[in-house]
Amino acid sequence: MTGSGSLRESVAVITGANRGFGRAIASALHTHGAHIVLAARDADALSVTQHELEATSVAGQRVVSVPTDVARATEVDRLVSETTDIFDRLDILVCNAGVYGPMGPIDTVDWDAWVSAIEINLLGTVLCCRAVLPTMRSRGRGKIITLSGGGATAPLPNVSAYAASKAAVVRFTETLAEEARGSGIDVNAVAPGALNTRLLDEVLAAGPDRVGATFYTRAQRQKAEGGTPLERGADLVAFLASSASDGITGRLLSAVWDDWQALPTQRERLMASDVYTLRRIVPEDRGWTTDGV
Known about the structure:
Layout: E1 11-15, H1 20-31, E2 35-40, H2 43-54, E3 63-67, H3 73-87, E4 92-95, H4 111-139, E5 142-147, H5 160-179, E6 185-191, H6 198-206, H7 208-211, H8 213-225, H9 230-241, E7 252-254, H10 267-271
Parallel strand pairs: 1-2, 1-4, 2-3, 4-5, 5-6, 6-7
């Protein structure tokens, strides 16, 4: 996709949009012509991002910010209400708000902090999706994009709240896609790659004793090498927010490893399969026989 105005007149709500990957997503959707609603807890950082985007807006394009804690249902409801009051529509939701949570073995980390990470990463995603569904259903169209991560597809020792919540987000995404089938609402999850954001800095600050030597060394290498460009994942989000992805739903797509640009030509084949989904691996999948050989 290019910045051709392919999302012109669409209204996109992005959570966790005040910095890092959330800001990159907002910038990408803004470049494609969408009106942008920025949501995050830090009002000052939201204002900075809002002014940056407004400086490049085309005639009639709006950028607004609504300070929001996605773990609080009343604040999420207010976010959606203010959006529809301003624009009389809501076309795209990107659930990007997330935290790593406490780092260390599960029996040593602070329990309240562990629960808080689940509330933000998982329950915050569910609350936002619940809140936008009535508006999207009434219009017969919508795009919901959730954020996954490495914790969704492989164990992530010492960062268990993040891993558990991200795996749950993917299964929720698949489930919501089934609930929304036939409504014109597509629901997909994105794995943006190894990003050099504040979350990486948190891992490095925690040190190898808390996050484990393997994870820490990988984080050091990622920091040195630069990680995956934020724009790569943002481009995938823009694709999933556009009409080019219509009918593609219930998938977990990697911005780095999957040929998502080619999916429109394989739409029917993809949707008749379980490709890009979380599934249990059985012995037959690995060529095992009943006698264990």
